[in-house]
Amino acid sequence: MGQKINPLGFRLGTTQNHHSIWFEKPKKYCESLQEDQKIRDRIKNYIDNHRVCSYTKRILDIDIETDYISRIQIEKVRNFVQVIIYMGFPMFLIKGKPHKLNELKVDVEKVLHCGNRNLTISISKIGNPCGDPNILAAILTQQLKKRVSFRKAMKKTIEVAEKMGSAKGIKVQLAGRIDGREMACVEWLRKGRVSLQTIRTKIDFCSTTVRTIHGVLGIKIWIFANGES
């Protein structure tokens, strides 16, 4: 049987970089790693709970919500912690509500192990949101929650990535009780070339879940981005 490996970890040092950048003593490594996860959870929960539904963007006949998180990068140097939130369509935290960033900073400071460290949070807009697998997974999740046919939602997600994201190839996979089937199954669609065995190819990957009326579905998206190292 084939042995599966995360395509991001497989390419660390070649086409992918770490999302957490810091050094720690071996005894404190686990504590610092858990702190990173708590920071990311706090940020995601805050943005999900404070997202304004009136901010939407229409792409290929799909009303897409704004403020989707692509990734969260954490850098630690002694008593300084810098958090960079890479987002697609960042409307809520940038336009008209700068005080929300201060509220987010106060909320994140509660999970820091040492309270005397300086924390800075900044937001960076990614250049090609429709070419990011995390944002495409959020678009697919949004369609599934609206009870759109899973195959139609997968095709629409691929169409968005192809026309707006300029990807060389994309693969979308759903797993679980799709459409309320009695037994769990796996359905996938692929468009273009997705070379997973070549390390120098730039593959972006996302794995997430979505809650539907029939249960939890797993979503995986692979994108073969332009450019090779």
UniProtKB/TrEMBL annotation:
Keyword Amino-acid biosynthesis listed: no
One family name in Pfam for this protein: Ribosomal_S3_C
InterPro entries in the cross-refs: KH_dom-like_a/b (IPR015946), KH_sf_prok-type (IPR009019), Ribosomal_S3_C_sf (IPR036419), Ribosomal_uS3 (IPR057258), Ribosomal_uS3_bac-typ (IPR005704), Ribosomal_uS3_C (IPR001351)
A cellular component term, taken from the record's GO annotations: cytosolic small ribosomal subunit
Organism: Geranium reflexum
Similarity section: Belongs to the universal ribosomal protein uS3 family.
Protein name: Small ribosomal subunit protein uS3c
Keyword line: Chloroplast, Plastid, Ribonucleoprotein, Ribosomal protein, RNA-binding
Small ribosomal subunit protein uS3 C-terminal domain boundaries: 141-223
GO biological process, one term: translation
GO molecular function: RNA binding; structural constituent of ribosome
